[in-house]
Design a protein that fits this description.
Regulatory subunit of the dolichol-phosphate mannose (DPM) synthase complex; essential for the ER localization. One of its GO terms (biological process) is GPI anchor biosynthetic process. This is Dolichol phosphate-mannose biosynthesis regulatory protein. This protein is mainly alpha-helical. 74% of the residues lie in helices and 0% in strands. The chain contains 2 helices and no strands. The longest helix is centred in the C-terminal third of the chain and has 40 residues.
């Protein structure tokens, strides 16, 4: 996993930071998508990741509240 993370970091850094310094006719541009995706892709991943975390936290809170309500109902009975 560390190797994959290192490769992704190297690829993204080359794509987003170093690519503008190469001439537009350089063959290295063929290995990368358009630069606008260097912003869109991480933004999409961030939105999906935060939505997933929010969903998980929300569902966990709802389950805990149901358990507390059920315990309170059993105590009252």
């Amino acid at each position: 996993m560390l190797l994959v993370a290192g490769l992704v970091f190297t690829y993204y850094t080359t794509w987003a930071i170093l690519l503008p310094f190469f001439d537009a006719s350089s063959p290295i541009h063929n290995y990368f998508p358009a630069r606008e995706w260097a912003i869109r892709l991480p933004a999409f991943v961030l939105v999906v990741g935060l939505s997933g975390i929010g969903f998980f936290v929300g569902s966990t809170i709802m389950k805990e509240n149901r358990k507390k309500a059920q315990k309170a109902k059993l105590r009252a009975a």
